[in-house]
From TrEMBL:
Record's keyword annotation contains Transmembrane: no
Tree of life domain: Eukaryota
Gene Ontology molecular function: chitin binding
Species of origin: Drosophila erecta
SMART domains named in the record: ChtBD2
Name this protein carries in UniProt: Chitin-binding type-2 domain-containing protein
Amino acid sequence: MSPNRVCPPLGLPLLLFLLGCLVSSTGVLATCNVCSAVNNLTCYSSTQMQACQVNVLSTATPTDCPSGYVCTSDSSGVLCQPEDSASGIQADCQECNRCDETQTFACTGTQSFALCLGTATVQDSVGTCASGYVCNIDDTQICGLPADGVMPTCSYADDSTTTTASGTTSSTTAAPPSTSSASTYCAAVQSQGKYAVGYNAYTTCRQYIECSLVGGSWIGQTYTCPGSMYFDSGSNMCVSNMPSTCSTTATTTSTTPAAPTPSNPEAYCQAMQAAGYYPVGTDASTTCHQYIECFLNGGTWGGNMYACPGGLYYNSASKTCVSTVPSTCSNTVASLTLNGVSLD
Ligand SMILES: *[C@@H]1O[C@H](CO)[C@@H](O)[C@H](O)[C@H]1NC(C)=O
């Protein structure tokens, strides 16, 4: 909470310099839940403050700032002030859902985060912190412990909008066995449409899975093309000419494709729906060394898994193999998904 440069004592010639000093000392502090030792107050949200003790997560009831005022923190402590961008007075608790400087992740809740994949955009990704850990945008391991001075970047005020319609997700009626794995597939793909099933010219090449969203749940059904037609994923239709992706020598078994997982790069890339390089997992000793390249091949998503050379790790933001363990591979991270695919 200390100002990031020393301000000179007030003097007329120094007035402008002092203004600049105020701007720089408050502009960078968008902290949230950090207790000011000056007055034992913290910003609970951009418009609420809360009594606290340094490095202890406060449980005190938050107090609203007066209307038009925002919660700010600077060298004089935490206080409610009228927001004024001209003089650099900005609310705290504004870094939730923002990608960090390295564009690796964004905190999306006090204990959750999402990948940014080297962009400034929060991706369709859900990561959770290990039990008791909180997500902090400046933490090199993504999640840290309040007892170690790591406070959540997101406000607890924004966390309370979960546990609502959890009853509706379990309402998928027990599907017959042949379609249940199709529904698993669709739940993972999360995109309406028809999808090719396999590469065996005699069996799976003639089938497709149709995914649809029914009452908030993804439903999948396996169909077989009529007569001796083949499913063509380019036109999404049954055609009489065998697509080039179908093999008459293929011995690949599957009746339905496996749900997308990193160990199934084709289905994984179908879920990513964009060419490029993607991370495989969060295990520092195994999957953190690997990456998957996704590409579109004649209308079908293909994927190859690679391992970084030597003992290098794959960095999802720089999309390169690096020697430092990426933050996503720390044991403060409990789970991580990307586009619905679980990265282990
Ligand atoms: C803040 O809290 C600490 C610990 O309870 C206490 O020692 C300190 O005097 C308090 N400071 C102020 C300014 O109230």
